[in-house]
Sequence to fold (139 residues):
Amino acid sequence: MEIYRTKAKKLTGTDYKEIRRNALASYELIRKRTKRRPYVRSAYFSKEKIFLGLFWGHLYEKNYRDQRRRMKLFDCAIELIQKSKLDPVSRENPNRSKELLHKFFGISPDDELFIVQIKENKRSNQKWLISIFPDEKWG
Fold:
C-alpha cells in the first residue's frame, strides 16, 4: 500500500460551525471555477475530472462529530486527488457490479492517515468523490 504525504494542512477550527465554514470556503473556490458540476482533475486518472457533488450528500448523512472529523481533511483530500500518482486499492463495488471503488491513502502533515474513496462508473467512465475519512487503525 502506497501512501501520499500531503503538504496541505488539516482545516483548523474547534467547533462544528467553524470547521464547516472553512471547508465550504475551500469548496466554494473549486465551485466558482465552473458553471456546471464542481470537479477537480486527478493526476492518477490522467487529468480526468473527479466530481465532488456526492461527497457533500454523503457527509450530511453522518453525525456532527463524524462530519467534523471528515471536513477537517477536505483540503488534504483535494491535494491528494490532484497530485497523487500512487496506485489506489481498487475493487468492484459489491452492491453494484457497474461500479469500481478506488481507495487512495494519504498522510496529513501532522501524521494522520486518511482515506479518500472515489467511485467510478464503468459505462460512463465518470468518477465521483464519495468519502474522506481518517483511518483509526493508524498509529
In short: The two ends are 16 Å apart (CA to CA). The chain has one domain: 4-134.
